[in-house]
């Protein structure tokens, strides 16, 4: 089963619908005439009209043309819509609506066609647009809709190509069109449209003859709610509300939200920043549409969504950018950058705040205001790189009001680190940066290539690190993916050999996860495959503002070089960034030939620094790279085939051909100054205690933290800490007492994992469920029942001894 992002014509600036309709900005507080807001003593609108009006308020609303930002959006919407009207075939004998969409075999083009009608309807109905109220446009749109329903959707047209377009993409846009043109359509015309939707998507519980899950079910439920409102059929709305029930349940396998902060779609992929977002977006629209009616969502459902925002969304957004490592194949779409998806999320959350209890709504607005302020890479109100057709103008109005509202505090960036074993993702967060780690296992695949997208995503989820800084002009969003060397994604250990587009190597790894304790994170991933011999153990220990990278047991016998990538930083077009190595500027010119260095430390201005053990041989390259989005996206519709060039600074370690038990170690200081990096190079604050295929461990003296990843069962002891089985441990001992955190990254162990710490501990202050403690004068023993733990961290805390 696959689904697709709706597509449009071949021009880069052509109108995107589908992805535009499925992931567009939304929101306004005011209701349109006929909505649920009424003066005292008047008769409330019928519930169907209320639902229609409240959904319509997410599409159009009050527009203050005195605000130059809002006025620019309205003007640009009309300017984008006018060429669509000009190119619309209105002839009586037409065989298509737009010549570039003349197809009866590619379903995505039909999603695009109805999406273009939707864009024109938005321009027709948005107050202040140059096309507002144009009677000729209204007539042409009604005629186009009639033709579409007679020839492309409904009637005798059978479903073909991708089911997603017929059951989700087209109905989402078609519902919006019927709401926007409601005053121009007869009851018969609306009924024809609803009959067509019912034909292809009669039951939100089922998509493509399969049980719908996650975002797909959510879309289907939203479609049914509006279909019921337009058909004035209460049973359809009630059925949709019932079908929503599984969406709210946390899951332990397959698609949906997980209690550890993960979201999975298509069973094997981390997808919070794509399908997860779309689920949140259309669930928010549904909640807004039915509020104040008999179909309103209960308080417990609202609370669950609040929990999702804090636990499943906020960890993966930094400075307004939704981390690429959570966006699946969407990272290969030129029109959906991390910041673009961050903007969409903010717009959705500001709307969601209106449905929530007052305190929750205020807190959420504060977080959103913080993200708007923090995004200097692609400012929230700037759509220069985003087609205006994808922007819902009410969200601009809403955002402007939020920024101007002095009663709402500007929220600060989250500093809470998270390990989401469910989707094999982790993030170590501090006030100035977020370092994401994308991993794979036998249950979470490294990347998805459905619909000929993301064909070069080979290493994007195999121990890849994603550093997010509040930078400008940006890194990931600044044409990184078309121009970067996809064989040298930071953090990865790879064989140096060409791979076929969309190739997989069949991960056999069963050890992926870690522990978070306050500002310390310990994360590990095994590297093993069914289709190549490369094996490795990889660990990341985040000690506050520094992250220690360890690799061990790096072994291969396929006759090729093996590399570990330290960094591949995008410095922009003609980037002037010059690395400083041991105090000297180096790589001052660009070259296609790598240089070999033996640095003690390296500082990359605007990025941070790296500290290596003495004698480490590092390969370095400062080069200009050129590539196209179409190199990795072969859908052939709505594409950007522009050749972009960006300058990169890349460092990697060459382990040679067929290494045996090779290893690596370096310290990363994200966002650090040159002085901070040079000071770290002569400090012994962070010490590597072990770096082997069976045990990786480190200690930070200043904080009294010891962290270890034990890769095999058997008593492993280091730094005064002993674990009897495979697992991950963080022990902190300081003036405030002691804390011991443990997890089973395999998620498969049963029974107890026992950790023994040398020395006595004070009184037990608190323990998580499943944790028992034995204290003595010589040692402290912490036992954790990991049965069914799904990789969760369990902690015991002690008073000072």
From TrEMBL:
Q: What is this protein called?
A: Hyaluronate lyase
Which CDD domains does the UniProt entry name for this protein? GAG_Lyase (cd01083)
The protein's matches in InterPro entries, at most eight in alphabetical order, are given as: Chondroitin_lyas, Gal_mutarotase_sf_dom, GH-type_carb-bd, Lyase_8, Lyase_8-like_C, Lyase_8_alpha_N, Lyase_8_C, Lyase_8_central_dom
Q: Does the keyword Lyase apply?
A: yes
Keyword list (alphabetical) reads:
Lyase, Signal
Tell me its family: Belongs to the polysaccharide lyase 8 family.
The terms under GO molecular function for this entry are: hyaluronate lyase activity
Q: Write the Enzyme Commission number(s) for this entry.
A: 4.2.2.1
Residue limits of the Polysaccharide lyase family 8 central domain? 422-672
Q: Which residues form the Polysaccharide lyase family 8 C-terminal domain?
A: 688-750
């Amino acid at each position: 089963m696959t689904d697709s992002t709706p597509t449009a014509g071949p021009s880069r600036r052509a109108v995107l619908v589908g992805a535009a309709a499925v992931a567009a900005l939304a929101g306004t507080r005011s209701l349109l005439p006929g909505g649920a807001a009424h003066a005292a003593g008047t008769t409330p609108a019928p519930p169907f009209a209320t639902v229609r009006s409240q959904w319509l308020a997410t599409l159009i609303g009050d527009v203050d043309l005195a605000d130059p930002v809002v006025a620019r959006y309205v003007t640009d919407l009309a300017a984008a819509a006018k060429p669509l009207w000009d190119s619309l075939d209105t002839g009586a004998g037409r065989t298509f609506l737009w010549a570039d969409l003349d197809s009866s075999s590619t379903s995505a083009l039909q999603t695009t066609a109805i999406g273009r009608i939707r864009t024109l309807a938005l321009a027709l109905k948005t107050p202040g647009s140059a096309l507002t109220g144009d009677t000729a446009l209204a007539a042409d749109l009604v005629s186009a809709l009639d033709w579409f329903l007679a020839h492309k959707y409904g009637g005798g047209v059978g479903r073909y190509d991708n089911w997603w377009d017929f059951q989700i993409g087209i109905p989402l846009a078609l519902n919006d069109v019927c709401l926007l043109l409601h005053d121009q359509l007869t009851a018969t015309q609306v009924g024809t449209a609803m009959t067509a939707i019912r034909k292809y998507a009669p039951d939100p519980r089922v998509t493509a003859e399969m049980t719908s899950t996650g975002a797909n079910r959510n879309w289907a439920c939203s479609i049914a709610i509006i279909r019921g409102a337009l058909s004035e059929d209460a049973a359809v709305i009630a059925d949709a509300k019932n079908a929503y029930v599984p969406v709210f349940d946390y899951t332990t396998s397959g698609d949906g939200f997980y209690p550890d902060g993960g979201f999975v779609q298509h069973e094997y992929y981390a997808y919070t920043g794509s399908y997860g977002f779309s689920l949140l977006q259309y669930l928010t629209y549904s909640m807004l549409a039915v509020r104040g009616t008999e179909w309103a969502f209960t308080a417990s459902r609202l609370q669950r969504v609040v929990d999702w925002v804090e636990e499943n969304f906020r960890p993966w957004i930094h400075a307004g950018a939704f981390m690429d490592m959570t966006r699946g194949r969407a990272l290969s779409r030129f029109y959906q950058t991390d910041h673009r998806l961050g903007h969409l999320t903010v717009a959705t959350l500001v709307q969601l705040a209106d449905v929530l209890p007052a305190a929750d709504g205020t807190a959420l607005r504060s977080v959103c205001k913080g993200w708007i302020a923090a995004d200097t890479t692609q400012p929230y109100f700037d759509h220069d790189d985003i087609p205006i057709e994808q922007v819902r103008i009410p969200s601009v109005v809403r955002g402007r009001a939020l920024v101007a509202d002095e009663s709402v505090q500007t929220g600060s960036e989250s500093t809470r680190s998270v390990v989401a074993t469910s989707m094999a993702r982790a993030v170590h967060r501090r006030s100035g940066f977020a370092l994401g780690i994308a991993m794979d296992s036998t249950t979470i695949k490294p990347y998805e290539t459905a619909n000929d997208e993301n064909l070069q995503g080979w290493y994007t989820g195999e121990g890849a690190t994603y550093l997010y800084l509040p930078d400008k002009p940006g890194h990931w969003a600044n044409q990184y993916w078309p121009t970067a060397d996809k064989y040298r994604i930071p953090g990865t250990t790879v064989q140096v050999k060409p791979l076929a587009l969309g190739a997989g190597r069949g991960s056999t790894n069963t050890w992926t996860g870690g522990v978070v304790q306050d500002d310390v994170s310990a994360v590990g991933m095994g590297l093993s495959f069914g289709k190549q011999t490369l094996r490795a153990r990889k660990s990341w220990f985040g000690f506050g503002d520094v992250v220690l990278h360890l690799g061990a047991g790096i072994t291969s016998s396929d006759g090729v070089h093996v590399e570990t990538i330290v960094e591949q930083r995008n410095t922009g077009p003609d980037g002037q960034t010059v690395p400083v190595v041991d105090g000297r500027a180096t790589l001052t010119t660009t070259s296609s030939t790598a240089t070999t260095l033996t640095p003690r430390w390296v500082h990359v201005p605007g990025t941070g620094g790296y500290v290596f053990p003495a004698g480490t041989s590092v390969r370095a390259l400062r080069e200009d790279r050129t590539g196209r989005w179409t190199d990795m996206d072969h859908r052939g519709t709505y594409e950007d085939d522009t050749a972009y060039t960006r300058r990169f600074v890349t460092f990697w370690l060459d382990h040679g051909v067929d290494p045996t038990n090779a290893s690596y170690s370096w310290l990363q200081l994200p966002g650090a100054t040159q002085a901070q990096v040079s000071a770290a190079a002569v400090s012994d604050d962070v010490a590597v205690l072990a770096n082997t295929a069976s045990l990786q461990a480190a200690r930070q003296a200043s904080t009294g933290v010891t962290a270890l990843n034990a890769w095999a069962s058997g008593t492993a002891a280091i730094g005064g800490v002993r674990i009897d089985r495979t697992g991950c441990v963080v022990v902190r001992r300081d003036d405030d007492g002691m804390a011991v955190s443990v997890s089973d990254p395999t998620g498969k162990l049963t029974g107890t994992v026992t950790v023994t710490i040398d020395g006595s501990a004070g009184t037990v202050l608190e323990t998580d469920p499943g944790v028992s403690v034995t204290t003595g004068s010589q040692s402290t023993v912490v036992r954790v029942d990991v049965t069914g733990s799904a990789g969760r961290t369990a902690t015991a805390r002690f008073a000072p001894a």
